[in-house]
Specification:
Oligomer: heterotrimer
Radius of gyration of chain B: 20 Å
Number of strands of chain B: 2
Order of helices and strands of chain B: HHHHHHHEHHHHEHHHH
Largest sheet of chain A: none
Structural class of chain B: mainly alpha
Strand content of chain A: under 5%
Order of helices and strands of chain A: HHHHHHHHHHH
Low-confidence stretches of chain A: 288-292
Structural class of chain A: mainly alpha
Shape of chain A: globular
Number of helices of chain A: 11
Chains: A mainly alpha (292), B mainly alpha (339), C alpha/beta (247)
CATH architecture of chain A: Orthogonal Bundle
Shape of chain B: globular
Largest sheet of chain B: 2 strands, antiparallel
Bound molecules: adenosine-5'-triphosphate, magnesium ion
Mean pLDDT of chain A: 87
Distance between the termini of chain A: 44 Å
Distance between the termini of chain B: 42 Å
Strand content of chain B: under 5%
Helix content of chain B: over 70%
Number of domains of chain A: 1
Number of helices of chain B: 15
Strand order of the largest sheet of chain B: 1-2
Number of strands of chain A: 0
Mean pLDDT of chain B: 84
Radius of gyration of chain A: 19 Å
Low-confidence stretches of chain B: 1-19
C-alpha cells in the first residue's frame, strides 16, 4: 500500500509535466480544431531560447518573461505567415505543415545548440519537498504554476472581451465575422497563447528531463493523451487528464510484472484508447463539438 | 448544427472520388511513358540508384494502402509504420529463423497484416477523426518499444534486429539481384495498383467512398459501415505489410528503430504530397520520400531537417491538394482554354 | 431632424447598389443587380427558393466574392472585409440565425456590440433587448444553443440591434416562429423603424407580411432583379402577386 501511494505521488509529479503540455494542446485545439504536432518542438525551442538568455546572464524570471513574450510573438507570426495563405487548403495539408514545422524546429535547435543534454535551472529547487517526500519542490512548483495558468485562462475566457471574441470565433467563425470580430487574428492569438503556454511547459519540464532537441518527443504524446482523456474542449479536463496519464504510466511501470517497465508507454496509450472507446469525447469533454 | 470542426473535416470528406478526371488518352500516354521509363531505368543507372528506386516503389505500395484508408474511406492513420514493421518482421523471422523461402513469406506477411489491420479497425470504428489520428499515432510510437521488448526478443532479436539475405534472381535471369528485386517490386506494385483501381471502381468501392462522403446516406442505402471500414483497414494494412515485407530483403536488415513514428509520418506526408485519393500519386509520394531528404542533406548537412521542412511547406503552398490535385487543376485550365 | 431623415429628404440613398455580381467559386449567382435603400425605410427582397436573396445579403456583407458597386453612405464597400463592413454599421441577421453555441444568451448580446466601446451604453442596450424580448431576459444565463428555435431568432435579432446599426439585413426573420410571435416581431421591427430610424432590408418568404411593413420592394428571380416598386403597389398588383408571390 505504501508503495502504491508512493507511486501515485510520483505519477502525479510526472503527470504535472503532461498536464502542462496538455493545456497548451487544448489551447491550440480551441483556436484551430487541430492537434498541433509541432507543439512539443515549439516548446522545446522556446526553452532553448530561455536557456540561452540565462546563459547570457539574464536573471531567471526576466528570461522567463522575455521567453513568453518572444514565444507569443513567434506563435502569432507562424499563424500569420505560414498558415494564413493555406486557410483554404485541405485539412490533411495542414497536418503536413505541422510535420514540416516539427522538422524545422527540431533541426534548427540541434544546429544552434547541438544535441548534448543541458541542465536547466528550476526556480523552485530540486530538493524533496520535505524530508523523504516522493515529490520535489520543483514538482510542487510545477503543479502550482499549472494551476495558476488554468485559473488565468478561465478568467480570460470568461470575463474579457477578447476572450469572449476568441470563443465566438472558435465556435462560429462566420457569425463571428458578422459581429465584427477579426477571426483571422483570433486564430493567430490562439497560436500565440498556445506557444506561450508551451514555453511555460517547456521551462518547467526541462529541469526534470534535461534540455535537448528531442526532449519533447514522448512528452508530447503523453500530453496529447492527457488532453484527449480529459476532453479536448476542456482546459481543466486536460490538466486532470495529464495527471491521470502520469499516474497510470507510473503504476503500470511498477505493478505490471515483467513487461510493465519496458512497455509503459504502450500500456498507457492502450488504456487511453480504452477510455476513448467508452467515452469518445474524453472524461470532461462536451459533445457540443459535432461528430466528424 | 454547423460546427467548425465539422466544416473543417468536410474538406477531408470532400475530396472527390474522380474529380474532373484527366482525359483518358492523356492519362494512358502518361502511364505507358511511365512504364517504359520504369522498365528501362534499372539498365542505365547504378546499383545504388536501383536500390533507391526500389524503395520508391515500396513506399508507393505502402502509400497506396494508406490512400485506400484515408483517401477513399476517410479514416485517418498516422500509424501505418506499425503494419509495415509487422510485414518486414514477418519476412525476416520466417526467412532467418524458420528458413522459409522469401517468396512464400510475402503472402504470409500480407495475411498477418490484414488480420492485424482488421483487428485494429474494430476499435477505430468508435473513434472520431482526431482521436483516430491520435490512436494510430500512439500505435506508431509504441511499435519500436514492443519490438524491443524482452518477451519478443527471441524472435525479433531485440534492439539488434535481424539481418536478411537477398534472394538471387530465379531461372538464371540475366539481371543482378538489385535489378531483380526492383522488377519484382515493380510487378507486385502494378498488380496491387490494378487491384486497388478495380476495387475502387467496383460496387464495394462506391460503398467505401459513400462512407467517406456521407455515412448517414450510406447507412440508409444499406451499406454495412462497420464491416466495410474494418475491411478497408485490413486491406490498407495488407498493402503496408507487403511493402514492409519487400523492404526487409531490399534493405537486408530489420531493426526496431527503422519503424518509428518517423516512418508513419513519412508515409502520411507521401500520401498528401502525391495526392489524397489518387492512385498514381502514390509514386510521386514515394519519389518525394526517397529523394527529397537526400536533397535536403546535400544542401545543408547540419540543417537537413529544417531544409526538408521548408521544402515541405513550399510544396504544400505550390500544390495544397498534392501532385494529383495540381495535375487536375492544370488539366482543367488547359481544357478550359482549348474550349 | 436626424441625419438619416435629412438625407432622405435630399433623396440620397443609404445603400446604393449598382451592377452587383456574386459568385460561388466559378458559379455566378447574382447578375447585375441594382437597387437602393432609402434611409429610415424598410425595403424587402422577395423571390422564390434559390432566387438569390440570401446570396444578395451575403454579397452586401462581403461574405462572398463580388463585382460591382456597393455604396454605403457614399462610401464604396464592395470588396471590403466583412468585419469592416459590420463596423460601418451594417448588422446581418443570417439565415440559420448564427447562434454562438457554448456561449450564454447575455454573452451573445455582448458579442453583438463587439465593435462598440461604450461599456455603459452597451449594458443599457442589453437591458433594452430584454424589455423588447422578455423571454430572453428569463434565459440570460442559459447557453444559447438550449433556446428554442424562435427564441434563437429573437436572440439573433437582438444581437444585430446591439450593433446600433444604420442598416439591418434580415434573412427570413419569421422563419420558425409561431404566427403570434411573428406578428409581435414585425410590430417590433416597424417600431424600430419609426422610433429609431433604422433602415432595413428584409428577405421574407411571407411576402404579404413583408409588403405590409415595407416601403419598397424588389423581386428577384434566378439572380436578377425582375421588378421593383413601392411596396403597396407591388402588393396590390394582382398579376404580380399571382406570378411571383403565390398568394
Ligand atoms: N455555397 C454555395 N455554393 C454554390 N452555390 C450556392 C451556394 N449557396 C447558394 N448557392 C446557389 O445560389 C443560388 C441562390 O441561393 P440563395 O441561398 O441565395 O437562395 P435564396 O433566394 O436565399 O433561397 P431560399 O428562399 O431557399 O433561402 C441557388 O441556386 C443556390 O443553389
Ligand atoms: Mg435564403
Amino acid at each position: 500500500m505504501e508503495l502504491f501511494i508512493h507511486q501515485v505521488l510520483a505519477g502525479l509529479a510526472t503527470g504535472g509535466i503532461y498536464a502542462c503540455i496538455a493545456l497548451a494542446i487544448v489551447m491550440i485545439y480551441q483556436a484551430i480544431h487541430h492537434l498541433n504536432l509541432a507543439q512539443g518542438e515549439m516548446a522545446m525551442f522556446s526553452t532553448f531560447v530561455a536557456w540561452q538568455l540565462i546563459e547570457w546572464g539574464m536573471p531567471y524570471w526576466a528570461a522567463f518573461v522575455l521567453t513568453l513574450v518572444l514565444s507569443f510573438a513567434a506563435g502569432v507570426a507562424i499563424e500569420r505567415i505560414v498558415f494564413r495563405p493555406l486557410h483554404n487548403a485541405p485539412v490533411l495539408s495542414h497536418i503536413v505543415v505541422f510535420i514540416a514545422l516539427f522538422s524545422i524546429f527540431n533541426s534548427a535547435a540541434g544546429f544552434i545548440w547541438d544535441f548534448t543534454i543541458k541542465s536547466f535551472p528550476s526556480p523552485f529547487g530540486s530538493q524533496p519537498l520535505f524530508e523523504g517526500a516522493p515529490v520535489s519542490a520543483h514538482d510542487t512548483g510545477m503543479f502550482g504554476v499549472t494551476f495558476v495558468l488554468l485559473i488565468l485562462l478561465f478568467l480570460f475566457f470568461r470575463f474579457t472581451r477578447v476572450g469572449l471574441a476568441m470563443r465566438a470565433a472558435a465556435v462560429n467563425p462566420e457569425s463571428a465575422r458578422l459581429v465584427g470580430i477579426r477571426v483571422g487574428w483570433m486564430v493567430a492569438l490562439g497560436w500565440g497563447m498556445a506557444a506561450a503556454i508551451g514555453a511555460v511547459a517547456g521551462m518547467l519540464i526541462a529541469p526534470v528531463v534535461f534540455l535537448e532537441p528531442n526532449m519533447m518527443l514522448s512528452i508530447l504524446l503523453y500530453g496529447f493523451a492527457g488532453a484527449v482523456v480529459g476532453g479536448l474542449t476542456s482546459p481543466a479536463g486536460a490538466v486532470v487528464g495529464g495527471f491521470i496519464v502520469g499516474v497510470v504510466e507510473n503504476l503500470a511501470g511498477s505493478f505490471i510484472p515483467y513487461i510493465g517497465q519496458e512497455l509503459k508507454l504502450t500500456i498507457a496509450l492502450a488504456l487511453i484508447v480504452a477510455v476513448l472507446m467508452v467515452r469518445p469525447s474524453g472524461l470532461f469533454g462536451s459533445r457540443l463539438v459535432s461528430r466528424v | 448544427m454547423p460546427s467548425t470542426l465539422a466544416a473543417r473535416f468536410k474538406s477531408l470528406r470532400q475530396i472527390p472520388a474522380k474529380p474532373r478526371e484527366v482525359p483518358l488518352s492523356w492519362s494512358r500516354i502518361a502511364l505507358i511513358a511511365g512504364l517504359v521509363l520504369a522498365v528501362t531505368l534499372p539498365f542505365v543507372v547504378k546499383n545504388f540508384v536501383i536500390f533507391q528506386l526500389t524503395m520508391v516503389l515500396i513506399y508507393a505500395i505502402a502509400i497506396l494502402g494508406l490512400n485506400m484508408l484515408t483517401g477513399f474511406n476517410g479514416q485517418f492513420s498516422l500509424g501505418h509504420s506499425a503494419f509495415y514493421a509487422i510485414g518486414a518482421y514477418t519476412t525476416a523471422i520466417l526467412m532467418e529463423i524458420y528458413g522459409f523461402d522469401f517468396y512464400l513469406t510475402i503472402p504470409v506477411a500480407a495475411l498477418i497484416c490484414f488480420a492485424f489491420g482488421f483487428l485494429f479497425g474494430l476499435p477505430a470504428l468508435r473513434l472520431e477523426a482526431i482521436y483516430l489520428a491520435l490512436a494510430t499515432f500512439a500505435l506508431a510510437a509504441a511499435t519500436p518499444q514492443i519490438l524491443k521488448s524482452t518477451p519478443l526478443s527471441p524472435w525479433t532479436g531485440g534492439v539488434q534486429g535481424i539481418y536478411v539475405l537477398k534472394p538471387d534472381p530465379p531461372f538464371g535471369l540475366p539481371v543482378n539481384s538489385d535489378q531483380w528485386l526492383y522488377f519484382l517490386t515493380l510487378g507486385i506494385g502494378l498488380v496491387l495498383a490494378v487491384i486497388a483501381r478495380n476495387l475502387i471502381d467496383s460496387r464495394s468501392g462506391r460503398a467505401i467512398i459513400a462512407i467517406r462522403d456521407n455515412p448517414i446516406a450510406a447507412r440508409a442505402m444499406g451499406v454495412d459501415i462497420a464491416l466495410y471500414k474494418t475491411l478497408v483497414f485490413g486491406v490498407s494494412a495488407l498493402y503496408a505489410g507487403i511493402a514492409g515485407s519487400l523492404s526487409a530483403v531490399v534493405v537486408q536488415f530489420v531493426a526496431p528503430d527503422s519503424f518509428t513514428f518517423v516512418l508513419a509520418i513519412a508515409l502520411f506526408v507521401g500520401l498528401v504530397i502525391g495526392g489524397v485519393g489518387s492512385i498514381p500519386g502514390a509514386v510521386i509520394g514515394g519519389l518525394f520520400l526517397v529523394f527529397v531528404p537526400n536533397f535536403a542533406e546535400e544542401i545543408s548537412k547540419g540543417l537537413a531537417g529544417a531544409v526538408y521542412g521548408a521544402i515541405l511547406i513550399l510544396v504544400i503552398y505550390a500544390m495544397p491538394s498534392g501532385a494529383a490535385g495540381l495535375v487536375r487543376m492544370l488539366v482543367a485550365k488547359l481544357a478550359g482554354r482549348s474550349r | 431632424m436626424t441625419a438619416a431623415q435629412t438625407r432622405a429628404a435630399s433623396g440620397e440613398a443609404l445603400l446604393r447598389v449598382r451592377g452587383l455580381n456574386a459568385f460561388y467559386g466559378r458559379i455566378q449567382a447574382l447578375f447585375d443587380i441594382d437597387f437602393d435603400i432609402a434611409p429610415g425605410c424598410v425595403t424587402t427582397l422577395l423571390g422564390a427558393n434559390g432566387a438569390g436573396k440570401t446570396t444578395t445579403l451575403r454579397a452586401l456583407c462581403g461574405m462572398i466574392p463580388t463585382k460591382g458597386d456597393i455604396e454605403l453612405d457614399g462610401v464604396n464597400i464592395g470588396g471590403r472585409a466583412t468585419e469592416d463592413i459590420v463596423s460601418l454599421g451594417v448588422a446581418h441577421v443570417p439565415e440559420g440565425r448564427g447562434t454562438f453555441i457554448g456561449v450564454t444568451v447575455e454573452e451573445n448580446l455582448r458579442l453583438g456590440a463587439m465593435t462598440r466601446r461604450d461599456r455603459r451604453e452597451i449594458s443599457a442596450d442589453i437591458e433594452r433587448m430584454y424589455q423588447l424580448f422578455p423571454r430572453l431576459a428569463e434565459r440570460r444565463a442559459q447557453q444559447a444553443q438550449t433556446l428554442s428555435g424562435g427564441e434563437q431568432q429573437m436572440l439573433a435579432i437582438s444581437r444585430a440591434l446591439m450593433l446600433r446599426p444604420k442598416l439591418m439585413l434580415l434573412d427570413e426573420p419569421s422563419f420558425g416562429l409561431a404566427p403570434l410571435i411573428i406578428e409581435e416581431l414585425f410590430e417590433t421591427l416597424s417600431r424600430l423603424k419609426t422610433d429609431e430610424g433604422i433602415s432595413m432590408l428584409i428577405v421574407e418568404q411571407n411576402a404579404a407580411l413583408a409588403l405590409e411593413i415595407a416601403d419598397h420592394a424588389y423581386l428577384i428571380e434566378t439572380g436578377r432583379v425582375v421588378m421593383s416598386g413601392p411596396a403597396d403597389e407591388i402588393g396590390r398588383d394582382e398579376s404580380i402577386r399571382r406570378a411571383y408571390l403565390g398568394y
